Automatic annotation (TrEMBL):
Highest taxon, organism lineage: Bacteria
Function summary: Required for efficient ubiquinone (coenzyme Q) biosynthesis. UbiK is probably an accessory factor of Ubi enzymes and facilitates ubiquinone biosynthesis by acting as an assembly factor, a targeting factor, or both.
Main location (coarse class): cytoplasm
Compartments (UniProt record): Cytoplasm
Entry protein name: Ubiquinone biosynthesis accessory factor UbiK
KW 4Fe-4S (keyword) present: no
Pathway per the UniProt entry: Cofactor biosynthesis; ubiquinone biosynthesis
Positions in coiled-coil regions: 53-80
Record-level GO cellular component terms: cytosol
Gene this chain is encoded by: ubiK
Pfam families given in the database record: BMFP
Keyword Cytoplasm set for record: yes
InterPro entries: UbiK
Record key words, sorted: Coiled coil, Cytoplasm, Ubiquinone biosynthesis
Length: 84
């Protein structure tokens, strides 16, 4: 006949095998939920990729160069008009 100590040891052994499985399942569930939450937040933000950012930066640089050239040309024309 098994004594209370034997039954307790058997229960601890079974519980000890069960706990790592529970912990792993809980960790995996947490990681899945965390990943879904982060992806949800990121999808609501209006983020652009690095390539899109670089392309827009190049467009802005060309636009700035054109504006500076036009400002210079306008200044030249104003000086010519004042000189007449």
């Amino acid at each position: 006949m098994k004594g209370p100590q034997d039954i307790l040891a058997q229960l601890q052994g079974q519980f000890g095998q069960f706990v790592p499985d529970m912990a792993r399942a809980a960790r995996e569930d947490f990681e899945t939920q965390a990943r879904a939450t982060v992806m949800s937040v990121l999808s609501r933000l209006e983020l652009v990729t690095r390539e899109e950012f670089d392309a827009q930066q190049a467009v802005l640089m060309r636009t700035r160069e054109k504006v500076e050239a036009l400002e210079s040309r306008v200044a030249e024309l104003e000086q010519k008009l004042q000189g007449k």
